[in-house]
Structure formats: C-alpha cells, structure tokens
Design a protein that fits this description.
This protein is of the alpha+beta class. The chain is built from nine helices and four strands; from the N terminus they run βαβαββααααααα. The chain has two domains: about 100 residues, Glutaredoxin (3-Layer(aba) Sandwich); about 100 residues, Glutathione S-transferase Yfyf (Class Pi), Chain A, domain 2, CATH 1.20.1050.10.
C-alpha cells in the first residue's frame, strides 16, 4: 500500500496518474497547501521541503521498513522501478525517458510555474516578468513539439513516466498564455493522453478531493504559498 500525500496541482497529478495507470493500491492523504497543511510537523517528517507530493511505501521493494520519499520525479522513478512499468529497466531507452523527466523537473515545471504566478497571482502586474516567462514557456512547448513530431510519446514508442510528468503541466496551457494550435504535435499527444482511462480516473479522483483542481487563492493561501 502506498500512502500518497497530495494536493490537486500538476505535481500532485503526476503521481495519481502513475498509480492509476499502474493499478497500484494507494491511499490519498489530502494536504491543502492553501491552508498551510504542508507545514504540519507530521508532514515535514515525510517531506522536509514542505512541498507535495510525497509518499510512504508501506511495502517497499527491499522488504525493509516503510520508505518515505518526496520530489515528484524521484517518486515516479521509484514507483516505475518497483512496479516494472513505464520506465525501461536498463539501456539507452531508460535514459531517454529520464532525460525528459528531468527536463520537466528542471525546465517546464519551474518556468510554467513562474508563468502562472506572474500572470495569475502576483499582487502587482509586472509586464517584464509576464512576457519573460510566457516566452520561455513557449520555447519549451516548442522543444516538446519538435520531439513529438516524429515520436508518438515523449520517451519514444512507449508511454512512460516522462509523459505522466509533462502532461499535467500542459493541461493548464491557457493559463500559461499558450495556444495548443501553435504546437500541433503537442496538441495531438495531449489529446491522446487525456483519453487514457488512467488519466481520467486520476482526475476524477482529484474532483473528490478538490473540485477547483488547484488552490483557492484568497489572502490565507497567498500567505502560506507566497509568504505574504
């Protein structure tokens, strides 16, 4: 059994996508980041960076004590190795998938996240920041579009944790100032992934936790998330 500490953000959705696609048993523990629950002492024992998602594997692959992990990329890699699904066990294909997973972690996620912040949440409009992050997000969409021009999935011929990591960050494309018609190969891929049963189940599960699919951005949420 996997205990998943989760909120309905792109990083949280990555893990429910995997768990639903892989058919692994898990329990959801909502951590409402807009209400400061990520700072609770018991959560910090699992996730010292006070960010979701995090997991506790009660039956780890090595047969030892329960294993706690934070950072969504590390969690995806661990779950893939444990289950033997969605990540090649060795060889070049494994590293191709991992490079795109790390591309999302180090590029698309941070840049799109800053894009979201300055477009939608910043207390004052800063045109330079909005333009800077929108352009960088568009550049990254372009990188992804070129990759998908001659590959069915991000990692190659097979659906993988790279797709699961990237797709939830493309889903809010309109809030990032991006039009998928400008990226036809991303659009084709995005539509195909969205029709998968595991993806649909993951987002249906999110509805039961938080129908808003994100954070209700009131003054309390801004204080917890942005230190204001």
């Amino acid at each position: 059994m996997i205990d998943l500490y989760y909120w309905t953000t792109p990083n949280g959705h990555k893990i429910t996508l995997f768990l639903e696609e892989a058919g692994l048993d898990y329990r959801l523990h909502p951590v409402n980041i807009g209400r400061g629950e990520q700072f609770a002492a018991e959560f910090l024992e699992i996730a010292p960076n006070n960010r979701i998602p995090a997991i506790v594997d009660r039956n780890p692959a090595d047969g030892g004590q329960p294993l706690a992990l934070f950072e969504s990329g590390a969690i995806l890699e661990y779950l893939a190795d444990k289950s033997g699904q969605f990540l090649p066990a060795s060889g070049r294909e494994r590293y191709v998938v991992l490079q795109w997973l790390y591309w999302q972690m180090g590029g698309l996620g941070p840049m799109a996240g800053q894009n979201h912040h300055f477009r939608n949440y910043a207390p004052a409009r800063i045109d330079y920041a909005i333009e800077r992050y929108a352009k960088e997000t568009a550049r990254l969409y372009g990188v992804l579009d070129r990759r998908l021009e001659d590959h069915e999935f991000v990692g190659g011929d097979a659906y993988s944790i790279a797709d699961m990591a990237i797709w939830p960050w493309i889903k809010p494309h309109a809030r990032q100032g991006q039009d998928l018609e400008d990226f036809p190969h991303v659009q084709r891929w995005f539509t195909a992934i969205g029709e998968r049963n595991g993806v649909r189940r993951a987002y249906a599960r999110a509805e039961t936790v938080n129908p808003r699919d994100g954070v209700e951005m009131d003054d309390e949420a801004r204080r917890h998330l942005f230190g204001r």
